[in-house]
Amino acid sequence: MTLQQMLYALTVEECGSMNKASEKLFIVQPTLTSAIKELENEVGITIFLRTHKGITPTPEGSEFLSDIRNLYQHFDMLMDKYKEESSYKRKFGVSTQHYSFAVKAFVEMARQFDMKEFDFAIRETSTMEVINDVSSLRSELGILYKSSLNKKLLRKLFTENELVFHPLIKCSAYVYLWGEHPLANRDSIGLEDLEPYPCLSFEQGEDYHFLAEEILSENVYPRTIKVTDRSTMLNLMVGLNGYTLCSGIISSDLNGEGYVVVKYREDEENPNSIMEIGYICKKNSILSQMGELFIKELNGALNNFYNSV
């Protein structure tokens, strides 16, 4: 297997089409098709499924592409680094559940670098996508939380994907709502107080209920609305007096001053819970300079919250 074959396979995956991949690689399509076929024969698996809608990796192909992506990226970085007048841009990506404090830490980290020399990416996404992004090295770090509800499943997923979880902070539940909400001025809020209002949560997919981003997701909420982005959730807090349950760690710099967090009041049937927020990375990996600074900024944001409560 050659580096050229790796590049061909990764480009086909990226483009989802032999025709588009051959155009990007500046080779004729029969040459690319033959090279992929030779590679499949050499490794003994079918890497791609050919359909009338395009080309998609097989399960075995996805694993193979993930394995060679890391190797080829290191080769590509090495070549770009040492060639004359290199235009190489170092890459750094973070995938995270919908945490404004993580975005704030990313902003503070990125400000310390010349944007012309780096390709930065931050992805607010579902819990499973955070895991997939770090597993495939699309992102160097992933930010999520563990609780008594999800820790068993997460431990299994981390082991399967060769990931390590590093805890950062433990916190209990808060109710996050609009500053003009009828309950906003209370010292604490119980589940019975919230019954007339819609509970907002981030969509995870039908098969991933136990990977909810919101703490106490196992409770029964009579009115619920699922969203896919933080901006929509904030709008629904204002428009419908919606609320969500969270860590209480928010960034007013990014979300605005019009929102508040109030302590969740537990009762016998609806006890509080602890969420342990941390970051995941690939097993045996070494953090980049950007990764180390991002974690430093993240710890700073979390410590400021801890010292204020």
Protein traits:
alpha/beta; 4-stranded mixed beta sheet
Question: Could you please describe the fold and organization of this structure?
Answer:
The chain has 309 residues and is α/β, with parallel strands linked by helices. Helices cover 42% and strands 24% of the residues. The chain is built from eleven helices and 13 strands. The strands form four sheets. Strands 4-3-5-13-6 form a five-stranded mixed sheet, with helices on both faces. Strands 8-12-7-11 form a four-stranded mixed sheet. A two-stranded antiparallel ribbon has the order 1-2. Strand 1 (48-51) and strand 2 form a beta hairpin. The radius of gyration is 23 Å and the shape is elongated.
